[in-house]
Write a structure and sequence with these properties.
The protein is elongated, with a radius of gyration of 19 Å. 71% of the residues lie in helices and 5% in strands. Strands 1-3-2 form a 3-stranded antiparallel sheet. The protein is mainly alpha-helical. A hairpin with a 3-residue loop joins strand 2 and strand 3.
Length: 214
């Protein structure tokens, strides 16, 4: 598929977006090698910006770059999934502790997102609102570095099977229950209850993502 340029978007940014989408949609058990020439031909972007995008993705830990050749995208193991969820726990537990004593308008925003998730019929919509639910809390905690770090973790998790998990109606209902528990604890200004709710949510997320796919 050829990538068309959007006004104001640079070639390296387009190459980065094309490569990131390729990475996060690759099933976790698969590995892939992409040459610079392949990426340039498939994305419609020249090799120099492709090379810049590969350098950026290597720095972010998504690929292993082979200089002057391309990039290796490794398969992901259960231990990779555990590492991402452990990192998410650090960010999200810290965030709810910061937000819960003085939540401001956060409960209202979370309720809107919960209502949207309850009515989502497509997994893509559900995932988008899931991301915004967690991001709304982290953003309100007021640490931009935590927010940026969390975004990179969610990108990694997309490849780890979120799309498959969220297509499961039983898991979707469970996520809504877990999200409501987090939102209720924040509304009640109870940091300890919020931390427990986050921990339970991430524990069940980890279990569901590690379940063997039939």
């Amino acid at each position: 598929m050829t990538t068309s340029k959007t006004a104001g978007t640079t070639a390296p940014e387009l190459a980065y977006a094309w490569l990131k989408n390729t990475i996060i949609t690759l099933p976790r058990e698969q590995e892939m090698f992409l040459s610079e020439a392949q990426v340039a031909a498939s994305s419609g972007i020249s090799r120099t910006p492709v090379r810049e995008a590969l350098l950026r993705l290597e720095a972010e830990g998504f690929i292993r770059r082979v200089p002057h050749k391309g990039a290796f995208i490794p398969a992901l193991s259960d231990s990779d999934i555990e590492a991402v969820l452990q990192a998410r726990r650090v960010v999200e537990e810290w965030s709810v502790r910061e937000v819960s004593p003085r939540p401001g308008l956060v409960p209202d925003r979370l309720q809107v997102l919960l209502d949207l998730q309850e009515n989502d019929t497509e997994p893509v919509e559900f995932i988008a609102h899931d991301l915004e639910f967690h991001t709304a809390i982290i953003r309100s905690a007021g640490n931009p570095l935590m927010n940026n770090f969390y975004s990179s973790l969610r990108d990694r998790q997309m490849r780890m099977g979120v799309r498959i998990v969220m297509a499961d109606e039983t898991r979707k209902k469970q996520v809504l229950v877990e999200h409501r528990a987090i939102a209720d604890a924040i509304t009640a200004r109870d940091p300890e209850a919020a931390v427990r709710a986050v921990r339970e949510h991430l524990d069940t997320t980890l279990k569901s993502m590690k379940q063997p796919k039939i």
